[in-house]
Write a structure and sequence with these properties.
Blueprint: H1 2-12, H2 14-21, E1 25-28, E2 32-36, E3 46-51, H3 66-82, E4 90-95, E5 105-109, H4 120-126, E6 131-133, H5 134-143, H6 152-159, E7 164-165, E8 172-173, H7 176-222, H8 230-242
Antiparallel strand pairs: 1-2, 2-3, 3-5, 4-5, 4-6, 7-8
This protein binds zinc ion (ZN).
Protein name: Aprataxin-like protein
Pfam families: DcpS_C, zf-C2HE
InterPro entries: HIT-like_sf, Znf-C2HE
């Protein structure tokens, strides 16, 4: 019994250990870090933002933490931008009854399509009052200065509540397996739309690049004065063939 309690405590400390070891850290600053949730992501994109200051959970937040929350949201936007996605594609906020022993803000894509989304509790954790959006937490702290805990019975009731409603259309069901299959259809459609847009964007980019290259070649020929004597052109051509193209130094953005 004692051993299993120790095991639970060990699991609850996972995020703190990862933060200390720099594991799965995608972006970080002096005050907070974004970690990719690789253990049990509940959607295609699932990150958690952790403050470096030790804060146990949302109930430990005070009004004085508002600037920290602003900073955590900045990091959330940075990681979303890094994925070339829009903030509208994400649900950002906190679990009121979090398992981990360290405050973590979820940045999770709204597809909720993942093999780790196995139980109705997983769904309800992110899609009921058990999940408090960043804006709601911010408003509570601003107005009241703290967040009230939710009674254990209400947490339990919300965790197992049915029917479950799709977050992307009016579909609802009592059967979680049906919802999972339904979410897959949404994801497949969105993914195919995204890949199609990417394909068009890549094609446009390549065509644009071809135009630039074409444009870059033209001045070389244009600079060759037709009226000059043939030996001048010959000399210039031999020089240009050995020179490096302009703009060869690539700037790597980090
Ligand atoms: Zn739907």
């Amino acid at each position: 019994m004692a051993e299993s309690e120790t095991d639970v405590e060990f699991l609850r400390g996972e995020l703190t250990r990862k933060l200390s070891a720099g594991e799965n850290v995608v972006i970080q600053s002096e005050r907070a870090a974004v970690l990719r949730n690789v253990t049990c992501p509940k959607a295609q994109y699932h990150f958690v933002v952790l403050p470096k200051e030790e804060i146990a959970n949302v109930l430990a937040l005070k009004r004085e933490h508002l600037p920290l929350l602003d900073h955590m949201m900045d990091l959330a936007n940075d990681v979303i931008k890094q994925q070339q996605l829009s903030p509208n594609d994400f649900r950002i906020g906190f679990k009121i009854d979090a398992f981990m022993n360290r405050l973590n803000m979820h940045v999770i894509s709204k597809d909720f399509y993942s093999s780790s989304m196995r139980r109705i509790q997983h769904w309800n954790t992110f899609n009921s009052d058990l999940f408090i959006t960043f804006q709601a937490i911010y408003a509570l702290l601003y107005v009241k200065g703290s967040v009230e805990p939710m009674p254990a019975e209400q947490v339990e009731q919300l965790l197992h509540a049915t029917p479950v409603h799709c977050n992307q259309c009016s579909f609802y069901t009592e059967n979680f397996g049906q919802l999972k299959r339904h979410l897959y259809i949404h994801w497949r459609e969105r993914e195919s739309e995204r890949l199609s847009k990417m394909g068009v964007a890549n094609l446009s980019q390549r065509m644009g690049q071809m135009q630039i290259n074409k444009g870059a070649e033209q001045p070389v020929h244009a600079k060759q004065p037709a009226k000059k004597k043939w030996y001048v052109n010959k000399k210039k051509n031999s020089q240009s063939s050995s020179s490096s193209p302009k703009g060869g130094a690539n700037t790597k953005l980090i």
